[in-house]
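Work through what follows:
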Amino acid sequence: MAERYRSSGLVPSSRPVGRRRSLARQPAWSLALYLVIVSLLAPRPSWSDHAPAGRAESPGMAPVAWSIQCVDCPKVFDEISNRSLRLDATGRPAIAYGGDHLYYAVHDGAGWRRETVDSAAGVGAYASLALDGAGDPHIGYYDARNRDLKYARRTQSGWSIEVVDSAGDVGAGAALALDQAGRPWLAYYDDTQRSLKYARWSGTAWAVQTVVRTSTAARDISLVLDAAGRPHIGYYDLATGDLRYGRWTGSIWEIHTVDSDGNVGADAALALDAAGLPHFSYYDATLGRLKFARGLAGGGWTIEVVDSDADVGGHTSLALDAAAAAHISYRDWTNGDLKYSRRQGAGWATQVVDSAGDVGLFTSLALDAAGRPAISYLDLTHNALKHAAWTGDRWQLDAVDSAGNAGDYTSLALDAHGRPHISYHDSSLGSLKYARWTGVEWSIETVFSGAIGANTSLALGRDGRPAIGLFDDASHAVKLARWTDASWEIQTADVISATARWLSLALDSADNPQLAYHDAAAGVLKHARWTGTSWTRQVVDNVGPISFVSLVIASDDAAHMAYYDAARGDLKHARGVGTGWIIQTVDSAGDVGGYPSLALAGGGGLHVSYYDWTGFRLKYAYWNGVAWISEPAASAGATGFNALIVHSSGAPAIAYYDDTAGVLRYARRSAPAPAAGNWDSQIVDSSADVGAHVTLALDATGRPHIGYYDVTNGDLKYARGTGQDHLVYLPAILRKAR
């Protein structure tokens, strides 16, 4: 699986389909008996609390109804365009932006008012804003989940949203302009047809036209309409590394090369002067310079370097004042600053606008009626969308909105009341966070600030106090965070020479913590145990590269680990005996053992779920007292992240990420092993690309609880089965019927 979310190099496998028997062929009395059993045993969910997904894909088991919550849901900003900022007639700024959803912010004179325009998942990239004569906003943007071009406009009754083009992967680089009648025009890229296109609203329908076909892609698209209402488009030709310009003559598109001296034209912005002549700001990636090009009335271009101080000129935005003097905002890559240049006589006057942290990405520039600049941009250090305005003698900076990305490396446990507690990673802040359900709301706090390695692992003591295993990247230390009723106490369990790529925590009968972890530099699997006064450490296995470890502790305090032997491509099990370890190979049929999840049944039986890299399937294995027995579990294409629990009946259930479909699934075996049984799978959540970093627990009533990561929206989510997760067994006579 790739570093952040998705499996790499996995080929989808076909979904196994169970044999279905027609009920019409059963005897009438057996059909009636079947229906009575189903009606008595099937859960009765509260439909107001029910997620849309949840259809069982195999017969014999009633589907579980799910209640889904977003636990920690920061905003995501992606591909903010250089046309996202506009000023209204009074000079007040408005900004369109998004990534997980589409947002709109406007300054009302006292502060920023923010609203969600389109709450659909994965929308808002390349948001391009225009204000009509009444000051109402119009936004063109990309729907990354459905790969569509969308358009939103504010009406008296709210936001009106429509899909402009959905034929293939269309809409990247969306650029919006309004004609004199206030009708929208959109330029964008069609990745399926390899074409630069534009769409025009006729008053009754969208008319779509191809501007030019490209060999690879057109990026950094700009659209401007001249006084006659004819479109002009600028774009970066990714195949040739050239800046290009197209204009509609009234009958054909004329395409011109503006600059081809090196790799030039990225982050381009286009503006027209009063004579309809084009002006461009853009980045020279070959020399690391900000450049400016101006079209001549007789044809041709004048090109000059605006700024060559270090590597500068990324993420440009351009505006012309009443005298046709150019103003440019841009990124200083070397220093991580926001810069601004304006034409002054024959040269350029340059200023650093903001240098506090890593700033200046995705700039958008607009001028007020007096020609004073305002700039919106991203501040990576503070994960914020910011706004800078020139007051006449200084730059006034303020934060518009904040973004984040939380929910990977989740670990879930339930307290005595069945309430969920979740540890997880906030990648935008580089911190370990902890969320717990109070019964009314989610309480969220930061446990550890600083870069942490892969995996957090949570366990609750008998007193309900949480303990979390983590790896501190800065000090290369395996650590334990434990709540003391007043604060988090951080202990160092081990210091190793490199990253501990995988880690798992469990508590023994005295609530003393034990940690299993991978020492990447040494290529060993290690175990650390708190004795009550100090940490003791052991090497469990030293056969070479080892990854993915899951630790459980039995009622006799014996430690058990399931882990992936990457050197051999095997799934292994280690059991602590005295001061040593007994190691077994669980499965060696191909390259197997990815993302193991180990569980103990009520009687102490061992069960493990894991991924089969060779067969591209999810597998399940159990210890029968003599040997490990494995079988394929429910799988719908490539998977990876998975979590296993065992019901009181002894039947296993697995929550897992369907990487192919990008959905969260829940699978159950129809009977406990070693009895013969079928695997049933249902979709828990398909609202976006969801289900990575999945974690699973079962409460005392038999209801499953799942924590997981929403890849599309960068959120931590939680799903709870709203009815008892029980199995529906069919009478033997029905199973024998043909």
About this structure: The chain has two helices and 56 strands.
